[in-house]
């Protein structure tokens, strides 16, 4: 019997997870509608992974040009032209958004460029005034960055804003020690911005392997990022002095800016902060400093506000995330949720897998729980960190382990006179010999961990790695040539 609903499936959210589920379901003959209030592609494509990675590439050329002279090239380092890069970036994002729109249209998904909220468990109200009904609803609205609760937090920017800056600031303070804070500290430093980073905990990248995150922190400091751990902000205020103290210099809040008639921060972006102009920051370590821009990278929360979710019976957790079972089903039997809005593992490829598992479960008569175990990931700092499985600390709590490490100066940068170090690390179960964790800090560690991840996901043992022949000369050959444990625990 034909369905009496307008759609078999209505997806709210046109990011990576929602688009994948919608178009695959539509390809199976399911009648699918999808609403997106912003741009198609979502966080990853429009204001996350993709523009971030392009900025990573942009930021690495300065080192490449500097190293080139050691290799005999006569290349002069010039200034970085943000508008040139930004125009190209915007063109690329427009292109990608069109690709996403095209994928949906070609698979037969009917799209609505508006915000959607639930009226009841089968009815969606669009902010263009239309109402649509659907047998099944999939929420894939992602998350959004949050500012901490400090006075004048609205003076600072968040990651969504960084791609839209009219000019690069001369100086920036980044608050936070997670993925976004550390990646942008490295990117902006590479683009020539004076970067200061405050992290409230003892070491950045909490939750990752201690030795690996320690090396990343050390490398960031050596490159010139002014990283302060055990430090947080107390308040922000506009720095209204005509002649502000030198950016990054100590200054007393409200005290006269003093002596210099020098106009500070030449080239400063007056529009960079959300209110424009330099910002005076009071920190927990005492004293005050002035920065052109303050960037909050203090976490993201699921986008579940004002969607009518709780009214129809969808339960939310303490962090506003949608609570789902192993099959991404909410407490309402026809409403499912995938991706960052469920705050399970907040990574694009995971959202895509959750979308695929939803399609298998609901439309292919193949109930598929989402596998969240042994997910490889990378943090695009400089150097990058690639990681899969347990940290040394977590593994040692679980069972007896052997730890294999190799730390060295890689050939390419050592030849150019750089002191950069690389870390290759394997955590091995003493009992089963299975590799429980692999942590790589190196240029292109993201590329390496993707491949090591296949073997580790397959359950490879240390001996499987040992009998794999090295590719010489590469950095990653160390992963199969470490013979003696560095320590046991
Ligand atoms: P994270 O949760 O990773 O980091 C948030 C940081 O902000 C932490 O260091 C946290 O400190 C700190 N923080 C939180 N609240 C406050 C506060 N009130 N005052 C000061 N500091 C605070 O979030 P991100 O925004 O960096 O990233 C969000 C998610 O996006 C990640 O979990 C990841 O899943 C994903 N992502 C993945 C990337 C990748 O795969 N390469 C890249 C970027 C994002 P504390 O440690 O003490 O809690």
TrEMBL record:
Identification of the protein by name: Glutathione amide reductase
Keyword NAD present in the record's keywords: the answer is yes
Which cysteines pair up through disulfides? They are: 44-49
Task: Supply the SUPFAM superfamilies for this chain.
Answer: FAD/NAD(P)-binding domain, FAD/NAD-linked reductases, dimerisation (C-terminal) domain
Judging by the UniProt lineage, the source's domain of life is Bacteria
Q: Name one GO molecular function term.
A: flavin adenine dinucleotide binding
Q: Which family does it belong to?
A: Belongs to the class-I pyridine nucleotide-disulfide oxidoreductase family.
* Binding annotation for FAD: 53, 340
